[in-house]
Design brief:
By secondary structure, this protein is α+β, with helices and mostly antiparallel strands. It contains 2 helices and 11 strands. It folds into 2 domains: about 30 residues; about 110 residues, Sandwich (Immunoglobulin-like). The strands form 3 sheets. Strands 3, 4, 6, 9 and 10 form a 5-stranded antiparallel sheet that branches. Strands 1-2-7-5 form a 4-stranded antiparallel sheet. The chain has a two-stranded antiparallel ribbon with strand order 8-11.
């Protein structure tokens, strides 16, 4: 193969790779880069830490370089229907904006999810919905009896 042909092959490969990168960057630019997980929380307050609250925390981590807006978060019902269960008594920074490389959370007191019929012996999943319409789910999390 002549030198001119090698240069043409190299230019074609480089051009294709550049176009592929542009498509990849365009596809991922408008989508939130985030993760959703569930964890236990426990906090105490008051003189001598006389009050204590525990429960679940839905944690959304922004792994991207842009601020993201979380419009809703909650748990999926354990009946397998895919129905979302939201807790009006929950506290935290969600819904709201999450800065790059930061976290937002929604705390659900233990008594509220137990009163809502959640079985502590079965796994549960959380979800977060973003302003873009994207919905992310957490991995299954075993509620457990402790909290």
């Amino acid at each position: 193969m002549e030198t001119g042909n090698w240069i043409a092959v190299y230019a074609a490969i480089a051009g294709t790779a550049g176009l592929g990168w542009q498509i990849y960057a365009w596809w991922h630019k408008g989508r939130p880069r985030a993760t959703v997980k569930i964890d236990h929380y426990s906090e105490s307050w008051g003189a001598g830490a006389t009050r204590k609250e525990s429960g679940l925390s839905v944690v959304v981590t922004n792994r991207g370089e842009q601020k993201i807006n979380v419009t809703a978060a909650g748990l999926y019902d354990q009946d397998g229907s895919g129905r979302w269960v939201h807790f009006g008594e929950a506290t935290g920074s969600i819904p709201g904006a999450i800065d790059p490389h930061d976290q937002g959370y929604l705390r659900i007191p233990r008594e509220h999810f137990l009163e809502g019929g959640f079985d502590p012996e079965r796994a549960v999943r959380a979800h977060a919905k973003f302003a873009t319409g994207q919905i992310l789910r957490s991995k299954p999390f075993l509620l457990g009896r402790e909290g």
